[in-house]
């Protein structure tokens, strides 16, 4: 059969196979920390094969791998169109270990601004301690190209970014990087493989916080790195060494959540556009950032490379800190919490949540003003969400 299955289908079946463990339609949770052998000769054969680089049985010890994880990884690799997926206990462990597996002493890594707070902190506070130079540049292809030094060996980007939903021209970045043999990594959490296909554009390693849209229910923490076998070899070793492995229950929840991935993303994309348009037309929302809006600075790039634009929207409330807090406190459905991509709609005032410890000047220098609000739509009826936003904005 030559037909290529689409992401929504692969999210349910993974790489299609009829034979299933215990004939179970859903993936069994194998809750064990270690795996036993029947005899010393079985141990001997296993260890000998391992020393020769052959795998005759996957399971040995829980820090290395678990069978539920294996199913989730196979499915994620199929959805992303990757040779291999490695699951992690969080998005951040995927990001940090991917960087650690590929970074070089005296090397230079380019990061793009408007990036995830913890990634920014790792880049600016921790990496210099390991004799790794870093640059944090504007999130666009030209700024990245200008920042390249002779020792640059990794370009690490996000797309869309957060909170400003900047969308990077990925083919342009890959072109620049390939010419100089620089590795490209993208944290595509906000896009998901439903909306963006970075590997098809030649990106080397794709990362996601599976805590968000992939898990989709605000009930688990996980991360995933995807790419070619050879590139992920060291990363896999590091992950098994450290034990940044997700537990069997987490893997089950993730794999189960993926069954509705296609449906959820269709909904998120439609709801995102509808709510962004509503906000843009509302007099109490003075500026709205959503890549699907014509007014967004990267709308043209987003349209060219994304299938949809997801359900994260940032906007400025007309008024000061107090007015913004009044708006948020007046919302009935939106839960006040960070994160995104789950069934419940969430709201955060960025200055208070992710950047509270920054000085006002430091915050404003990266565009985090008091009246900046980020919403992440869930799976509720979109007209109810609009009604809720409307009544809360009316109280500003
Ligand atoms: C949430 C998030 C992370 C971190 O993921 P965790 O699963 O919380 O560790 C990294 N990058 C982006 C873009 C995120 O949204």
Q: Which small molecules are bound?
A: pyridoxal-5'-phosphate
CATH class of the largest domain: Alpha Beta
Q: Radius of gyration over alpha carbons?
A: 22 Å
Number of domains: 2
Q: Report the sheet-strand fraction.
A: 5-15%
- In the CATH hierarchy, what is the architecture of the largest domain at level 2? 3-Layer(aba) Sandwich
Roughly how much helix do the residues carry, as a percent range?
Answer: 40-55%
- Count of individual beta strands: 12
What does this structure look like?
This protein has helices at residues 7-13, 40-51, 67-80, 91-102, 117-126, 141-147, 170-179, 192-195, 229-242, 248-258, 261-281, 299-305, 321-330, 350-353, 360-365, 382-394; strands at residues 84-88, 108-112, 133-137, 152-158, 183-187, 205-209, 223-227, 285-289, 312-317, 335-336, 346-349, 372-376. The protein is globular and about 75 Å long. With 396 residues, it is of the alpha/beta class. It folds into two domains: 7-30 and 66-258, 3-Layer(aba) Sandwich (Aspartate Aminotransferase, domain 2); 261-394, Aspartate Aminotransferase, domain 1.
């Amino acid at each position: 059969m030559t037909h290529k299955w689409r992401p929504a289908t692969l999210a349910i079946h993974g790489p299609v196979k009829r034979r299933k463990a215990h004939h179970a339609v859903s993936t069994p949770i194998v809750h064990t920390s270690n795996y036993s052998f029947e005899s010393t000769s079985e141990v001997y054969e296993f260890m000998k094969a391992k020393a020769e680089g052959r795998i005759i049985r996957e399971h040995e010890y829980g820090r290395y791998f678990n069978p539920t994880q294996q199913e989730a990884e196979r499915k994620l690799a199929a959805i992303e169109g990757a040779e291999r997926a490695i699951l992690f206990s969080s998005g951040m462990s995927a990001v940090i270990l991917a960087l650690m597996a590929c970074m070089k002493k005296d090397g230079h890594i380019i990061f793009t601004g408007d990036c995830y707070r913890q990634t920014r902190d790792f880049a600016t506070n921790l990496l210099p301690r390991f004799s790794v130079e870093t640059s944090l540049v504007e999130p666009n292809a030209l700024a990245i190209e200008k920042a390249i030094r002779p020792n640059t060996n990794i370009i690490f980007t996000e797309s869309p970014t957060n909170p400003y939903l900047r969308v990077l021209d990925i083919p342009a970045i890959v072109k620049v990087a390939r010419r100089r043999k620089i590795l490209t990594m993208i944290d595509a959490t906000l896009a998901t493989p439903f909306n963006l296909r970075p590997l098809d554009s030649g990106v080397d390693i794709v990362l996601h916080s599976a805590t968000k849209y992939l898990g989709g229910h605000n009930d688990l923490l996980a991360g995933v790195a995807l790419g070619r076998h050879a590139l992920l070899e060291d990363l896999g070793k590091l992950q098994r060494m450290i034990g940044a492995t997700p537990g069997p229950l987490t893997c089950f929840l993730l794999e189960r959540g993926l069954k509705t991935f296609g449906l959820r993303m269709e909904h998120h994309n439609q709801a995102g556009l509808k709510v962004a348009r509503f906000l843009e037309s509302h007099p109490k929302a003075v500026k709205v950032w959503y890549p699907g809006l014509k007014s967004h600075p990267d709308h043209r790039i987003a349209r060219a490379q994304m299938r949809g634009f997801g359900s994260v929207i940032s906007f400025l409330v007309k008024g000061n800190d107090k007015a913004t807090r009044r708006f948020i406190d007046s919302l009935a459905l939106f839960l006040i919490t960070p994160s995104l991509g789950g069934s419940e709609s969430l709201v955060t005032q960025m200055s208070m949540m992710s950047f509270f410890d920054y000085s006002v000047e430091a915050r404003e220098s990266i565009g985090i003003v008091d009246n900046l609000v980020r919403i992440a739509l869930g799976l509720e009826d979109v007209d109810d969400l609009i009604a809720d936003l409307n009544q809360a904005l009316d109280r500003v």
